[in-house]
Design goal:
mainly alpha
Length: 245
Amino acid sequence: MIILLLAGLFAGFINTLAGGGSMLTLPALMMLGMPADIANATNRVGIFLQSMAGAKGFRDYDRLDSSAVAPILVPTLVGALIGSLAASYLPVWLLKPTLLGSMVLMAVVMLVRPDTISPPEGTSVRKLKETPLAIVSLFFSGIYGGFVQAGVGFMLIAALAGGLRYDLVRTNALKMVCTAVLSGVALVVFVARGQVMWFPGLVLAVGMVIGTTASVRFAISVSQKTLKWLLLIMVSIASGAAMLS
């Protein structure tokens, strides 16, 4: 329980600011003897509750663009349903190259052209219907998130900040909504398949919600530059961990 709580605490903080927290929580669950598919399913309990808490926190600070939620969720939801159904039957390692490639690409882009992922202050937000690439990115983010979750935050940031040009705080707010919905879809599929272990999932969720609540307050109080460097550090660490695993 202590390991799950601590893993959840750190993962909740990391997931809210960047992504990759499931790279802590999935190993923690598998330490209990869970097979990879059961750990992947059980992990969604914490992700879902953490994302709901994060979305509410950003909304309370008036950083959530509510008008953009419905259009953004359509391609994400369709992808999440496809990905979660695939995850229930296929081995997790099949989408690992997609995650690794997207994270390495994001790290390189942030070093070479940082404004691509972290728009300068005052940048106009684009409408989703006018940005086909963002629609495609959200769809594939949904597929990946429904399939395995670990690292999907990086893919959503690329779509929301890189494609639609939201600043990192508002990007993270919308990212929390997206992960809540795609995790909810995946959770329904996994529950129907009898793959969720509720007690460890809820213990993990307690830590993740606490970490997320602290992370929202941190994100609101620091500069965009600080958030950008934290994102770059987390992308680099997650890329290295994916390469070694």
